[in-house]
Structures are given as C-alpha cells and as structure tokens.
Amino acid sequence: MPRSPFSNPRQADGTVRTIPYADTMQGWSEDKCMPAKPLLLSILEKGGFRGCRLCLVLTMVALTACSSSSRIEQQSKIARSAAQTAAMVVDAWIAGAVPSNYASATLQSAADTLADAERQIESGYSSETPERRGVITAIGRLSAAARRAQARIKAGSPPQVSQAVQELRTAATEFAAAYDRYSAPKS
Known about the structure:
Largest sheet: 2 strands, antiparallel
Order of helices and strands: EEHHHHH
Distance between the termini: 73 Å
Oligomer: single chain
Helix content: 55-70%
Shape: flat
C-alpha cells in the first residue's frame, strides 16, 4: 500500500521529510519544499475540529478587540452588505435563478438586518448630528425598500419587482452618500 504524503514526516534519523509542494495540493514550483504534514492537518489530528474552531474564535476576538471602529461604522458595513445581498437576490429572482420562497426569505432577513442596524445606531451613545441622522434615515429607507421588494416577489409581478430593484439601488445610493457625509473629515 503506498504511503500517504501526510503520514509521519519524521525520518528514522530524526529529520523532517519534505515533499514538493506541487505534489500536495497547489502552488509552488517543484523546487520549493514544505513539511509533509501541513499545520492544519496537525491541528485537526490533535484537537479535531474543536481546535480549529477555537483558533477561529480567538482570531475573531482578537480582531474585534483591535478594531477601533465606532458602532455606526460597524453597523454601516452590515447595512451595506445586507443591501447588496437584497439587490443581488432580486436580480437573481428576475433572471429566474432563485425560487420565490428563497428570494422572499432572503429579503426578509436583509430587511430585518437593516432594521437591526438602524436600531443599533440609534441606541448607540453618540451626539445627534445631521450626518448621523442621515445615515439612520437612509438605513431605514433601505429596510423599507427590501420589505417592498419581498412583498412584490410574493405577489409574483416581475414589473413591480423591477421597480423594487430600482428603489433598492436608489436607497443604497442615498445611504452611501449619507455615510460619506458622516465619515467626511470634520473641520
């Protein structure tokens, strides 16, 4: 039976056996070598998926702790992502690439995410400025547009859904402008 390239990399003399990286999965030229047992496989063998999940959780916590973004910046990123998801799923529904129930559920989730982002920004401790209020209002419009798109998909009317896509894009453009005003350097 042939030996797996991921079996014990230690040779009898104690040295680590290396194999060309190109023979494993991807990547380098054949003259480059790597340890025969990649780190990920070692983690999986020793700690199973729990070890991998622990590394992922610790990395996420460290990145969050290092982030100096304010609540409005974080929620604006979430809102931008939800708005893009809503527009993409409506486009996919119009093209016939996704069923109505999937598109409707996705739009419901996007609208809920947008409404939550709006609430998070409103509840955050921050001075009320016109720029901040503009971001909150724009996210509210995005949420409403996603809900209208969902209702129109449930109704099954492509012309109305096309109008909903336009409303989503307009609301997304207004949101981007409001966020740009908010994040612009203050003089």
